[in-house]
What we know:
This protein is α/β, with parallel strands linked by helices. It has a single domain, classed as 3-Layer(aba) Sandwich (Rossmann fold). The protein has helices at 2-17, 19-27, 35-57, 77-82, 94-107, 142-155, 170-180, 195-204, and strands at residues 65-69, 86-91, 114-118, 128-134, 156-164, 207-216, 221-229. It has a seven-stranded mixed sheet, with helices on both faces. The chain is globular and about 40 Å long. The protein starts with a helix and ends with a strand. It binds S-adenosylmethionine (SAM). The site of S-adenosylmethionine has 20 residues, from helix 1. S-adenosylmethionine is lined by residues 9, 12, 16, 28, 70-72, 75-76, 91-93, 96, 120-122, 134-136, 139.
Amino acid sequence: EEKTLVDDKTIVKDYFNQTGFDRWRKIYGTDEVNRVQLDIRKGHQQTVDTVLDWLKADNNLSELSICDAGCGVGSLSIPLAQAGAQVFASDISEKMVGEAQTRAQDALKNLDNIQFNAQDLEQLEGEYHSVICLDVLIHYPHEKADEMIGHLCSLAKSRVILSFAPKTCALAILKKIGSFFPGPSKTTRAYMHKEKDVIASLEKYGFKVERNAMTKTRFYYSRILEATRS
Ligand code: SAM
């Protein structure tokens, strides 16, 4: 069991340091991409925008410390820092986090309120007002998701925001997602999660869902849950 997880993680980490880095840096960027990638780009941006809209509506971003676990290229971390939050951005892939840092340098006037770390989210320590983890659960098999959510909850004083590919309209989509990661050797598996399982985990660790949204495009599906300490 443990061994499987280590192997899964090594595969994910290597993927996002190599072929996955090139692929996702492009998708999470502005250069020309193919139609499927463009659809995923737009869907992902909607997920990021939903979270930004929620947080900005509360009008207190400049008072918050936010952990963006599995930050990718900084798609959420950078606008959060821009809006005045204290941001702790980390990712298991050094390349992704390096790209996030480069983009932050280009986009932000200063880097005073944003920190970057190459780190497995399950090794993160400390306390943050909010812990946000977007589209990372796709790399966690069902039996590892609860523990991962538990760890994120332990870091959050007030709030956890998660997004994940929902296991509902599943199998057809699963196939499509499978084709986003083609070839067994250079691939990571894509895992979907039942919303009720994720909610059950959040509740088990003391959090109650407050806001709920769904992003759905042709090739991108993501359920977004905001849960606060109850
Ligand atoms: N959250 C970012 C976003 O929405 O723009 C990136 C999403 S991308 C699909 C998934 C990211 O999760 C990758 O950058 C990958 O390296 C990272 N990741 C996967 N497993 C991780 C782990 N155990 N700890 C930290 N990051 C992880």
